[in-house]
Amino acid sequence: KVLLLDDNGNVTLGAPAVEGASVEAKVLQHLKGDKVIVFKKKRRKGYKKKNGHRQSFTQILIEGIVAVAAKKKAAKKEVEVEATEATEEVKPKAKATRKPKTEE
């Protein structure tokens, strides 16, 4: 999600993201982070548990941010809105009635 675009002083803020903007990136390598030791203990109970964990990471290189697609998506949304206004309104379904319980 692109939150803000700066084009030589022309700043575009998203609400919350800029629609149609995309980021071009290249994957450089896949890594693992430092080992984190998870140690659980309950005192006076004889319970000890030791686990380790290494988080996986992906190193990327951002090549560019493209905002050209924003105009195309906005035009499509306008067409969809006009099409929905032209269709007939859907009538709500009638509520189902419950039968009273009979005593046996």
Task: Explain how this protein is built.
This protein is of the alpha+beta class. It has a domain at 4-74. It is built from one helix and four strands. It has one helix spanning 69-86, and strands at 4-7, 10-13, 22-42, 47-66. The strands form two sheets. A two-stranded antiparallel ribbon has the order 1-2. It is flat, with a radius of gyration of 28 Å. The mean pLDDT is 80.
Note the main attributes of this structure.
4 strands; two-stranded antiparallel sheet; flat; 1 helix; 104 residues
Class by alpha and beta content:
alpha+beta
Order of helices and strands: EEEEH
| End-to-end CA span | 62 Å
Number of strands: 4
Apparent shape: flat
Largest sheet: 2 strands, antiparallel
Contiguous low-pLDDT stretches (5 residues minimum) are none
Query: What share of residues is helical?
Result: 10-25%
